[in-house]
Amino acid sequence: MKNTEPKYINRITVDPEICHGKPCIRGMRWPVEVLLDMLLSEMSIEEILEDHPELEKEDILASLEYAKILVSGKTITLAA
What is the pTM assigned to this prediction? Predict the structure, then answer.
């Protein structure tokens, strides 16, 4: 089994001045929920990155990691 230590979570930030304090990618106006919505709409990681070159693969993985941690019931402390 792979290491379960969070690897990408440091890419998720929360700032009350950005997107009403929703968890976002690297302080940009990209809420985690939007990336999850794109994946749920069956866009591939490659399609997302092609359409939005300011994003990186690790940003999408960070969104998935964030969702996984929330579902597990663990507490997350995010950087501003």
Answer: 0.86
